[in-house]
Amino acid sequence: MAFITLNTEKLKENYIHLDAFFKRHHIQWAVVSKLLCGNRKYLESLIHLGVQQICDSRVSNLRTIKSINPSVETIYIKPPAKRSVSSVVQYADVSFNTELSTMKLLSKAAVSANKIHKVVIMIELGELREGVMRENLVEFYSDVFKLPNIEVIGIGANLTCMYGVLPNHDKLIQLCIYKELIEAKFNKKILFVSGGASVTIPLIDKGLLPNGINHFRVGETLYLGTDVYNNTAYENMHNDVFKLYAEVIEMNEKPMVPIGELGHNLSGEKLEFDEAAMSENAHRAIIDLGLLDIESDHLTPFDDDLKIAGVSSDMMVIDLGENPRNIKTGDLIEFKMDYLGVLRIMHSKYIEKRFEGVAL
Hints:
It is a single chain. By secondary structure, the protein is an alpha/beta fold. It has 2 domains: 7-233, TIM Barrel (Alpha-Beta Barrel), CATH 3.20.20; 242-355, Elongation Factor Tu (Ef-tu), domain 3 (Beta Barrel). It has 10 helices and 18 strands. The strands form 3 sheets. Strands 1, 12, 13, 14, 15, 16, 17 and 18 form an 8-stranded mixed β-sheet that branches. The protein has an 8-stranded parallel barrel with strand order 2-3-4-5-6-7-8-9, surrounded by 5 helices. The chain has a two-stranded antiparallel sheet with strand order 10-11. Helix 4 (85-91) packs across helix 5 (100-113). The longest helix is centred in the middle third of the chain and has 18 residues, at 169-186. It is elongated and about 75 Å long. The model has no long low-confidence stretch (mean pLDDT 91).
């Protein structure tokens, strides 16, 4: 069967590196845990590192985090659905918000629970996902400050995740200015300007991060060691914290070009092949992994000689060429994944989750 592994030592080293980096620049940061899809044993490993603040977009995952360590501050990082406000107040210490009607419900739920619920107001800076429009900002804050049991602790913004709008000095300066405007207008202190994510990290070393940005939310760079802004890997971080293993369930030498009239495949594609390869054969391995688990665009064999030849719902074909490593049925093929690849695999109930170091 296929399984994914988490290397806790490499995760620890990535965490220590980032934690020291942010401390040098006097920036508070929270770990985004949604990649772990609520897996309890992986969350326990994350919390064991000493993480004080964890962000997630699923209330069920925050509930698991609180059950592991109630002292960890939990942040719900998308505007809450109205039907889930009671759970958000119960399991999230902080939530990101953009809708006044929802915040009124959060206030009501917080009053009923006799607790203070902290909020960060998200501002639209051009990504066109969540965020209060800038021309409505002052009025929005005015209404929010009147809500009982709601404490406004920050202002924030999201960039890159949907359309790929990159953060830059000008956009982040705008966020800092809005924070100063709100403080001056209402004589209130806004503690956090949460304008940083994995994609924003390179701006720090370049001296392009405004001094007012004092809070980051980081997931991908921690888990994969990636420079998201430049789509490269950091040399001083591990990019193989996660590995995927799939077992060879058939091994044969077969033609490189399909035989017969071609129609559309499972994905709706009509493929074309080089007729010059009609007479060529290659060793091909079928592994126990498919589109139910992950799209082939999001994983790559660690062995550069291996190529993904095709994929169906629950099987994938690997071109081994001349098979110089003598791979055979029952062997495991090892893969690296990008962020979406790990996310899909973690979400699949068919893929076992292990720690690296356990006998394979």
